[in-house]
Write the structure tokens for this entry.
Amino acid sequence: MSEKKDKQKIDNEIKSLDENKAETNKVSDEDITNDDNVICENNDTIINNLEKQVLDLKDQLMRTLADSENLRKRTFKEIEQAKKYSHITFVRDLVSSIDNLQRALESVPDDKSDLSDPIKNLIIGLDIVEKEIITNFEKHNLKQIDPLGDKFDYNLHQAMFEVATNDTEPGIIVEVSQKGYLLHDRLVRPAMVGISKKLEDKEFDDKKKSKQ
């Protein structure tokens, strides 16, 4: 009887151990599954963070490249502008000297028969020099503005006075006091001009009577 009880006790202990082992294995499997889930979640978070960092770095790179390209274009434009216009002050002074030369030539009488040969040769030489200077001006993109007969343009001309006349429509340049100059597309000096205005009826009648 005692042996039977001992055997039953042993069987119960073995069964208990098996149950504990099975429970332990079950808990271990659940822990492993939970650990795997945590690792997967952590990996997803890391991947998302890395992808975000890559996008941020790409955006910064694109912005840097765009800034560099804009700087390159702006520097190139500034260099081109300097090549074109850096000597505009010198040009402005130079054209004033040419004005004096042209005024001197304009003061020469049309009839040169009374002038001595040396004076005639001097005038011819000055005339050649004036033409050569204008040619060189045009070669270096410095152009004269001689707008006689043109429509007044405030971008290129400066009105010095008005001339009342009905011979032309109002706003036409009828006299050029001083020629202007353009360096490429930049105004060095406007042309000083006189422009036409409509002659009023009373003025027109008075002018007509005075001619009679």
Summary: The first helix runs from residue 2 to 85. Strands lie at 142-145, 157-164, 173-178, 180-183, 186-189, 191-197.
